[in-house]
Write a structure and sequence with these properties.
50% helix; 176 residues; Rossmann fold; alpha/beta; five-stranded parallel β-sheet; single chain; 7 strands
């Protein structure tokens, strides 16, 4: 396990998990959100995003955190040897993302490239603005996508690790 893609619904804790994996294996950590979200929450153009990610995953060992299958396609998974899917129940994800988003908005903590979460976006009814609504709306879609991918012939080269609880996660990390 040297080239690992960590996926899951926004707010599930995949960034923390990916950083922990990278630290334990002493390999580079690549956060796709930090690459994609440019100043002012502007998306990096898709061609540039793909090229930047391709350069970052050219090495022999890494942990990539993020989904972005719509923009990156199989770019990451074609090089990966393992997919760690953080598949927590929707209620757990919603509790985590709501608390995290509120903390970030109140403390004005910078995320990437000068971007910060806001209370206005937190309560927005637009899922493209509210990460909480985004997580709610994508939870089932992500689950279906990754359940299907585990058995897809084009991903036979990948080892899928599905983590459904804190206990699963602790056991996985302890085994690294």
């Amino acid at each position: 396990m040297q080239r690992i893609s960590v996926v899951g619904t926004s707010g599930s804790g995949k960034s923390t998990l990916a950083r922990n994996i990278a630290d334990r294996l002493a390999i580079p950590y690549i956060e796709l959100d930090a690459i994609h979200h440019q100043p002012g929450w502007t998306a990096m153009p898709e061609k540039e995003f793909r090229a930047t990610v391709a350069r970052r995953i050219a090495g022999d060992a890494w942990v990539v955190d993020g989904n972005y299958l719509g923009k990156l396609g199989d770019l990451v998974w074609a090089r990966a040897d393992t997919v760690v899917w953080f598949d927590l129940p929707r209620a757990v994800v919603m509790r985590r993302i709501t608390g995290r988003t509120l903390r970030r908005a109140l403390t004005r903590r910078e995320l990437w490239n000068g971007n910060r979460e806001s209370l206005r976006n937190m309560v927005s009814r637009d899922p493209d603005r509210s990460v909480i609504l985004w997580a709610w709306n994508t939870h089932s879609t992500n689950r279906d996508r990754y359940l299907t991918a585990q058995n897809a012939p084009e991903y036979r080269h990948l080892r899928f690790v599905r983590l459904r609880s804190r206990r699963d996660t602790d056991e996985f990390l302890d085994g690294l």
